[in-house]
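Let us work through a complete example step by step.
Step 1: write down the sequence.
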Amino acid sequence: MKKLLLPLFGIFISSILYSQVQDTTLSSKYARNICIDNSKHDYQESVDYFIEVIKKDSTDLEAYYNLGMSYYKLLDFKRAIATYDQLVEKDSCFNYALHNRALCKFFLKDRDGACYDFKRALQCSYPDMSGTKEEYERFCK
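Step 2: predict the structure and record it as C-alpha cells.
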C-alpha cells in the first residue's frame, strides 16, 4: 500500500508546484494573494503596486486592468478612465475594461461615452457579459 501511495503523493505535489509556476506575472501573483476581502483592502497600496508592475512590464494587460479597478474602488474615475484608455489602446476588445470604463463615464455623467463603451464591450463580449447587456439596455435605450 505504501508503494502505491508514495507515487500518488509525488504526483499530487508535482501538480501543485506546476500550477504555481504557470501563473508568473507580477500582477497575477498580487491579485491572487491580496484582495480576498474588499472591505479590508488598501486600494492605494494596489495603485502603487500596479504602477510599479507596469513600469517593469508595460505589456502586462492584467496590471492595467487591476490598476484601473483600484482607481475605480478609490472612486477616482478620471484616473480609472485614463488607465482603461491605455489598456484599450493595447487591446481594443478587452471587454471588461470597456465595461468598467463605461461605468466610470456613467458616474461622471458622460452618458454618451458610457453607452459607446457598453456597446463596444457587447460587440467584443463573451457570453458572460450579461451585466453589460442589462446596463446598456437600462441606461442607453
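Step 3: interpret the result. The chain is about 75% helix and 0% strand.
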